[in-house]
């Protein structure tokens, strides 16, 4: 089955530790995205990538880093510089059409709790 | 820059009643519009999308939405609510720029009463 996998489902970390969230897709999509979801705030874009070895900052990139070494993989690192890292993190992918009409497909999410 | 406003963070309807979830967008260029549904602790699933082919768009699970340019709206409706429709619904907009990322509204939680 084609889809997007995120692991782990739940992640707990101590404050001051970096943590990496995994995102893998087998849909052969060129573009991948990371969103953060907080209650009552919808989804906010952290980083996105439209091609291997290239990525761009989204609206809330501070305290996060990403890599795109393979088309299928787009891991997100939450660094100790992120002031409020506890949130639900969603990865998505899409094909790239000539316009912005390609819908995004989402993974099941990772809930990160930092104490 | 584009933006989306969803009126009403919580909507409650009775089973069998009409569902109406409101979405207004702001965009200086023709937008592409999407509705997604999210069940607790899960990812988002696409309900339907508007890409300028037709103003009335039908989606999955009996939902539909109408694009009204004059009102800059893309409200989601379903004639008869089912208990399984209880979830959070997100409206999103995309425009034809290099960014090609969605901008989401803050979401509307739909509650269905028996």
Question: Can you put this structure into words, describing what you see?
Answer:
The complex is a heterodimer of chains A (115) and B (114). Chain A has no helices and eleven strands. With 115 residues, chain A is mostly beta strands. In chain A, a hairpin with a 2-residue loop joins strand 5 (43-51) and strand 6 (54-57). Chain A is globular, with a radius of gyration of 13 Å. By secondary structure, chain B is mainly beta. Chain B has no helices and eleven strands. In chain B, a hairpin with a 7-residue loop joins strand 9 and strand 10. The termini of chain B are far apart. The mean pLDDT of chain B is 91. Classes of the chains: A mainly beta (115), B mainly beta (114). At the A-B interface, strand 4, strand 5, strand 9 and strand 10 of A face strand 4, strand 5, strand 9 and strand 10 of B.
Give the overall form of chain A: globular
SSE pattern of chain B: EEEEEEEEEEE
Structural class of chain A: mainly beta
The description of the largest β-sheet of chain B is: 6 strands, mixed
Low-confidence stretches of chain A: none
**What fraction, in percent, of the residue positions of chain B are helical?**
under 10%
Overall SS class of chain B: mainly beta
Q: Give the end-to-end Cα distance of chain A, rounded to a whole number of Å.
A: 36 Å
- Average pLDDT score of chain A: 91
Task: Summarize the entry for a quick read.
The complex is a heterodimer of chains A (115) and B (114). Chain A is built from no helices and 11 strands.
């Amino acid at each position: 089955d084609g889809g997007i996998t995120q692991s782990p489902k739940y992640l707990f970390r101590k404050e001051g530790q970096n943590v990496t969230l995994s995102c893998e897709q087998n849909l052969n999509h060129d573009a991948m995205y990371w969103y953060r979801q907080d209650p009552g705030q919808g989804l906010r874009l952290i980083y996105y990538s439209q091609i291997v070895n290239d990525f761009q900052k989204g609206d809330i990139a501070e305290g996060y880093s990403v890599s795109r070494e393979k088309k299928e993989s787009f891991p997100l690192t939450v660094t100790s510089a992120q002031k409020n890292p506890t949130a639900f993190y969603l990865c998505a992918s899409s094909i790239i059409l000539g316009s912005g009409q390609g819908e995004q497909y989402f993974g099941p999410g990772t809930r990160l709790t930092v104490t | 820059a584009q933006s989306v406003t969803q009126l009403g963070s919580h909507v409650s309807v009775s089973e069998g009643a009409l569902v109406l979830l409101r979405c207004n967008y702001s965009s200086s260029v023709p937008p592409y519009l999407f509705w997604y549904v999210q069940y607790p602790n899960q990812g988002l699933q696409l309900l339907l999308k508007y890409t300028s082919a037709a103003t009335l768009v039908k989606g999955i699970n009996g939902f539909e939405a109408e694009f009204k340019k004059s009102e800059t709206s893309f409200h989601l409706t379903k004639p008869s609510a089912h208990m399984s429709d209880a979830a959070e619904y997100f409206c999103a907009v995309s425009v034809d720029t290099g960014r090609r990322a969605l901008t989401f509204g803050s979401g509307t939680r739909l509650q269905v009463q028996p």
